[in-house]
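Hi Y.,

Following your request, here is the sequence exactly as I used it, all 412 residues.
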Amino acid sequence: MGQILFKNAALLDPKEDELQGGASVLVEGDSIREVSLKPIKAAKADAVDCGGRTLMPGLIDCHVHVFLSEVNIRYLEALPLTMMTARGADLALAMLNRGFTTVRDTGGADWGIRDAIAQGFLPGPRLFIAGRAIGPTGGHSDARRRTDVMATCKCCNAMNFCLEVADGADAVRAAAREQMRQGVDQVKIMVSGGVASPYDPLDSRQFSLDEIGAAVEEAEAFGRYVQAHAYTPEAIQRAVGKGVRTIEHGNLIDEKSAKLMKLKGAYMVANLVAYYAMKERAKEFGMTSDMLAKNDLVIDGGLRSLETCKRAGVKVGYGSDLLGQLQVDQSREFILRREVLKPIEIIRQATLVGAEIVRMEGKLGQVKPGALADILVVDGDPIKKLELLTGQGENLSVIMKAGKFHKNRLAA
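Below is the corresponding structure, written out as tokens. Let me know if you'd prefer a different format.
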């Protein structure tokens, strides 16, 4: 089993407030074997001199859509699954290039692309998938136009492939079981309206308490958990009260909802950048005026939601939730959160908290013995200059995932 020795690095341990200089990290196989602030003796290891650059864990984005390659998801109706997969492979590669070695897909990506990446057929981040996002008739997961009277085929319509409609507790139970049969890591449900769906009001109440409970019961029975798309306090309280583990978006959260999340140990996965990017550029990619109007309703709540969660002690994960051509802005989320959080707090959200959310605590999000060797070498100190983590990976000299170099500008 080969060894790689990173030396002369400034270690960014997300649990610490500052870098630790003079660090060495020994990688063996796919894992980290040793971390020391003194030189490590490993005569047979291939050495990488970091030249004082920052060595840190790979980033984790807990809300992406690898298969949603259009800003106006209606355009996916004209895409066959082969084209959807090809585009998704390109989007996944770009995420890895930005330093995201792990992402959680929250609706669309299936076991095929997850395993293709894991088996080395495609380059990309480690994927945790939800399969088809499940919602009620007329809700955020209903892909039909008003002129459609029957469900259309899922095998020749990329949008339908990513979404599922179920009504009633028994139907939701069956839909959740089917997604778990398809190998998902978590089950995604919709409990409020959404921006990208044209017909449902943002504050609409989607899924009954019995339906939410059925999804949670089935997920837990299978050793999985439920994540819920939710904006309003009512939606958040209904979901978390029935055992939903992570709330996606949550822009309109209030103090009462946040206290309930803290009490239940639920996580928030915020994603501010999606709303700013949509406001600025989504119209040119076909997003409708109705969708953009709903976007305006939630954009101002993003920063307030971070403040509310921080006061209540709710753990918040890093998420981007960008669609299609807007996914180039994935790393801009770091800068937006800086309005209310310190850089190290945001880095922790994109490492330590992300690892907890995907239930890989101690294996991801840290540079420590026994963790998977997901490593970035950054050209500077991102705690002092958070912009180093933005863009398309220009400031990353090394990107390593599970002990294998995806990028290495420091090679001798």
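The CA atoms of residues 57 and 295 lie 33 Å apart.

Thanks again,
Q.
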